[in-house]
Amino acid sequence: MEIEKPTWGWLEPFEKFGQLGDKNSDYKKVLYGDSITKYSTCTHAAHGMIYALDNTKVWDLYESRAAILMQMRFDGVLGFPGGLVDAGENPAAALNREMIEEINIDTSKHYFDDKDHLVSYLHEEKNLVLHFYTKKVNLTEFRNIERRNLEAKEYGIETFGIIRPPLFTMGDNLRGFPAFLSNQFAGNSKEELLLALCATNIMTKDEIDIAVEAMKKHVQSLQ
Ligand SMILES: O=c1[nH]cnc2c1ncn2[C@H]1C[C@H](O)[C@@H](COP(=O)(O)OP(=O)(O)O)O1
């Protein structure tokens, strides 16, 4: 008896871009302009990091540094809100559309445009270009954005809840940010997070390198 194929959620060969397990080294940085002209036949996606600086202390001990909005995705890995760019669509416009669908953002107050673009990456084998944007809001606005998320159209379908990464490292030099980094991330989103933390001066390159080393040691110790 022939088993009927599900019409959604089946990774067809053309959906190769959605497969998990990408290596950071598979992505190379490309200029935004080139990515639009030279790689027009690739699949494009746009994702965005909304963040607010936050100088409150966690348990009067650890610097919060910033509230950053990430999400648990339908495929069980972490990433930023965003998604695929439709044919003929501008990546920033696609990002705003996805932000409405995935986290119910009010684009009359907060929207991404070309000047929020931080970096674009090409995954040659997957024929995939990833555009990444950042948007700074204040902490009150950030909390309002978080509150609206439960009413998003895609909540419980494509997105399974928003999260804030802990940006502090606890006394054992592992719990907190390094342990967070040992999760699985979609596409190149871990690298995007690290780059954005540095570009926004939320963390120094040295602090990031220390956390990444602690995370690697932890992951190796589990193997
Ligand atoms: O946050 C991200 N940063 C970089 N790449 C990402 C991120 N989230 C997903 N991805 C990758 C994974 C896929 O290869 C594509 C498509 O993204 P996705 O958000 O799943 O697209 P749709 O919601 O299905 O339109 O980007």
TrEMBL record:
Assigned keywords, A-Z: Hydrolase, Nucleotide metabolism, Nucleus, RNA-binding
Pfam families attached to this UniProt entry: Nudt16-like
Cell compartments where the protein resides: Nucleus, Nucleolus; Nucleus, Nucleoplasm
Catalytic activity: dIDP + H2O = dIMP + phosphate + H(+); a 5'-end (N(7)-methyl 5'-triphosphoguanosine)-ribonucleoside in mRNA + H2O = N(7)-methyl-GDP + a 5'-end phospho-ribonucleoside in mRNA + 2 H(+); IDP + H2O = IMP + phosphate + H(+)
GO terms (BP aspect): mRNA catabolic process; nucleotide metabolic process; sno(s)RNA catabolic process
Residue span, Nudix hydrolase domain: 42-181
InterPro entries named among the record's database cross-references: NUDIX_hydrolase-like_dom_sf, NUDIX_hydrolase_CS, NUDIX_hydrolase_dom, NudT16
EC identifiers of the protein: 3.6.1.64
GO CC annotation: nucleolus; nucleoplasm
Cofactor (UniProt): Co(2+)
GO molecular function list: 5'-(N(7)-methylguanosine 5'-triphospho)-[mRNA] hydrolase activity; IDP phosphatase activity; phosphodiesterase decapping endonuclease activity; snoRNA binding
Family (UniProt): Belongs to the Nudix hydrolase family. NUDT16 subfamily.
PANTHER family: NUDIX T16 FAMILY MEMBER (PTHR31699), U8 SNORNA-DECAPPING ENZYME (PTHR31699:SF1)
Designated name of the protein: U8 snoRNA-decapping enzyme
Organism: Patella caerulea
